[in-house]
Amino acid sequence: MKHKQIITLTKFNETYELTAPPTSIHNLIIGKLYVDIGGTATIKCLENPNVTAETKFFLRGWLGDEAYKV
User: Fold this and answer.
1) Which domain holds residue 51?
2) Does the residue 70 lie in any domain?
3) Does 67 fall in a domain?
4) What's CA 11's distance to the chain center, in Å?
5) pLDDT at 62 over 70
6) Does 45 or 31 have the greater pLDDT score?
7) For the whole model, what pTM was predicted?
């Protein structure tokens, strides 16, 4: 499930839509609890739909090879 937020920059008279990537919680039973983000975050200017930005987050994985990789 993707969560969307609207951000308004009143100083610049701009409005953006932020679509957050999915998050997951790991090691609920054994080990140290941690939250992992995996997927794509998208920011879109509502006044000009051609202006967008995407950031891809990689899940940590079993061996931690992809930990903190964006």
Assistant:
1) 3-57
2) no
3) no
4) 25
5) no
6) 45
7) 0.69
**How far apart are alpha carbons 25 and 37 in whole angstroms?**
9
- How does residue 53 score in pLDDT terms, banded at 50, 70 and 90? very high
Cross-strand pairs, 7: 16
| Overall domain count for the chain | 1
Structure tokens at 40: 């794509």
Taking residue 40's Cβ as centre, other Cβ atoms within 10 Å add up to 13
- Amino acid 68 reads Y
> Distances from the Cα of 1 to the Cαs of 6, 24, 38, 39, 64, in angstroms?
17, 11, 12, 11, 24
All residues at 6 or more sequence positions from 2 whose CB lies less than 8 Å from its CB, including other chains:
19, 20, 21, 22
Q: For residues 48-70, give the mean pLDDT.
A: 80
